[in-house]
Amino acid sequence: MKNPPKLKVFLVDDDALFLKDEEIEMNKKNEYNIKTFATGELCIEHLSQNPDVIILDYCLNGVKKDAMNGQQVLDKVKRFNSDIAVVILSEQKKIDVAVNCMQHRAFDYVEKGKTAFSRLHHILNKIRLMNL
User: Are 53 and 85 a contacting pair, CB within 8 Å?
Assistant: First the structure.
């Protein structure tokens, strides 16, 4: 049986160290084509590359103080192509933030922490199966 095509995944986080860790973790499985972005604005500029999934931090103002937050980026992504699965990955522990993101059509919401990367792999596998 042929291997399924790699998912094209955009990682968006303003924390350079976390973004690099995330990229390294995602590359361990060799199942994804990864592109990284430090701001939501940069991610939006590259949407024409048609990612399958965007893993998006909620707070993105560490590089640029007036940067869009994750929800604003999510809204722009969905206007560009509603089929792109957007997973919010954030330190926000407020349930209203998670609920709000889901109401704005996020595919899922994951809190940063010990199990975040394993949850992301599980979510990406679910997305891959949905796309077959």
Answer: yes
- pTM for the predicted model, two decimal places: 0.91
HSE of 35, CA atoms in CB hemisphere, 13 A: 20
Beta strand pairing call for 108-111 and 85-90: parallel
Q: What phi-psi label fits residue 22: left (phi over 0), alpha (psi between -120 and 50 degrees) or beta?
A: alpha
What rounded mean pLDDT belongs to the chain? 90
Taken in order of first residue, the domains within the chain and their CATH numbers are 7-131 (3.40.50.2300)
CA-nearest of 94, 124, 109 to 6 is 124
E strand spans, the chain: 7-12, 32-37, 53-56, 85-90, 108-111
Return the closest-CA partner of residue 32 out of 124, 109, 106: 124
Q: Tell me: pLDDT of 2 over 70.
A: no
- Strand segments (E) across 38-118: 53-56, 85-90, 108-111
Note the pLDDT tens digit of each residue in 31-76.
Answer: 899 999 999 999 999 999 999 999 999 988 777 778 888 999 999 9
